[in-house]
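Reopening closed ticket. The problem is back. First fold of the pair:
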Amino acid sequence: MRKSSTTEVTRESRRLSAGPVSRSVARESEPGRDCPLCPRLAAFREEIRAREPHWFNSPVPPFGDREAALLIVGLAPGLQGANRTGRPFTGDYAGDLLYGTLLEYGFADGVYQARPDDGLRLINCRLGNAVHCVPPQNKPLPIEIKTCRPFLIATRDEMPKLRAVVILGRVAHDTTLKAFGIRAADAPFGHGAEHQAGNIRLFDSYHCSRYNTNTGVLTPAMFKAVFARVKAYLAAS
């Protein structure tokens, strides 16, 4: 099969994420393509668009079925990952570990090839980020996290069958707690920790970034153990 060019992949990513509504118009759970709410992120987005015009370079929408029982919340799109491809966790090392784990535990089907037209399908699972736009140095500011939180809340609220949330990293943990109205003191972050938000179980994990895996903060076995618990919880609920 012919390998798609970067331009073709980007066009396909925009088509898949846009659905029946133009990307220039914000859907309920998404900022628009030219979202101006975070000036620093908007300026960075324009800078990258000028440098890499064939990349996605827009707020990255969630990936997966709104009827899913599992939502995974990351931090923000990676510069050469989701910001380039337009699909969460696609195109960088974090995606290699995440999608490989989802495939192993039955939350995905197909073959992950690090591009949005690889045909990979999520099963009872949806992916999103606390911040929709790529931040400089992969570090969103607190005000940017707060500004983007309504979109995270909208993503949660449009999932009627949601029963579990896997939260990747402390920053995503903190904003997800706020989205659920939970005090930080009542649900401290820790890898493997679990917290209850009504009928939804929250599962904490260290982020599956290359830095965390290279330094041994997170091993594949540690990461897989979280999803084993999620699978068991969903099977029992």
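Second fold of the pair, where the issue appears:
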Amino acid sequence: MSEEEKQLIDGCIAGNKQSQKQLYLQYGPMIKGICTRYAANGEDAEDLFHDTFVFILTHFKNYKNISSLNGWLRTITINKAIDYYRRIKRQHTADLEIIDFADPSSPDITNRTLTMEQLTTYINSLPDKYRTAFNLYIIDGIPQEEITTMMGETPANVRSLISRARSMLRNKIQQYLNHEEFEF
């Protein structure tokens, strides 16, 4: 960890407003991006971001041996997002076969492009369980075994959730690329 990060952490522990502002400006976009990926909508993402940032500021003193500030903030944010997921968790999941995310052989796909904002919108439109499993595995690169523990699901259900999320996203993207209207 750099000396600048250590000073930033020490300032936040001491309640220094300038340090807190610097933390917000420097790491806020990363934290907000993670919150946006996990929340069902923009309002929930804002609430999750606020709750996460307050938690970080009030818990620095408990984590004095932070080796990587960026990694620690990322881990805290993902854990808070999982807590958010657990609060709104739905109880139904079906076992589905594993389906590849992309189907490059589709003859109907045109040269239309998909922006990151559109992809984020499609991901956010997934049901809560699917979105959470997809984000943890595909976006954050967390192994399925850990996801099983984090989400309180069986390994088969986690595989199914990821598979179904891929399938749903593939269908939405193919509809868009084929000039079909996307409806939520």
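Update: turned out to be a display glitch only; the data is intact. The radius of gyration is 19 Å. The chain has a mean pLDDT of 78. Please close again.
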